[in-house]
Specification:
It is elongated and about 55 Å long. The chain is built from four helices and five strands; from the N terminus they run βααααββββ. It has a five-stranded antiparallel beta sheet with strand order 1-3-4-5-2, with helices on one face. It starts with 13 loop residues before the first strand and ends in a 5-residue tail after the last strand. The chain is α+β, with helices and mostly antiparallel strands.
Length: 140
């Protein structure tokens, strides 16, 4: 499995990954990350928050972006240089999130690609928006 090298990328090229967020996903992420904020894992606590129920960790949507970058576009061998994220709406348990990455700019001279990153829920609401800079894999 190989990814797109800098010479094979095109501005406007897109790839997506879709996943439904389960309670198990949130608990596993809490365990892996150490973020046991009760807004994510305690239903009684969450009832008294702004959202009135448990929400997934915002950075979990960032992990879905990473899945697209590392597996599809540019794909295997890609290395992150940076990622900005704006969390625009909550992700609730049971939401289906689609993470989409689009090539915005190609910087051949230093083997970098600028990517627009976006996560939307099943209702088309943007939950996370950002931009990544990556080093695509070297050509074979």
């Amino acid at each position: 499995m190989t990814g797109y090298s800098i010479d094979n990328l095109r501005v406007g090229q897109k790839a997506s990954f879709t996943k439904s967020i389960t309670e198990t996903d949130v608990y596993l992420f809490a365990g892996i990350s150490g973020d046991i904020n009760p807004a994510h894992i305690n239903e009684e606590y969450a009832k008294n928050t702004y959202f009135k129920r448990r929400i997934a960790h915002g950075i979990l949507s960032g992990a879905l972006i990473s899945a697209v970058i590392g597996v599809q576009l540019p794909g295997p061998g890609t290395i992150y240089a940076s990622q900005s994220l704006n969390f625009l709406a909550p992700v609730y348990f049971g939401d289906t999130i689609t993470s989409t990455v689009e090539v915005k700019e190609i910087l051949k001279e230093n083997n970098r690609a600028v990517l627009t990153t976006l996560c939307t829920n099943q209702d088309g609401i943007i939950v996370t928006k950002g931009e990544a800079v990556v080093l695509p894999p070297k050509a074979n």
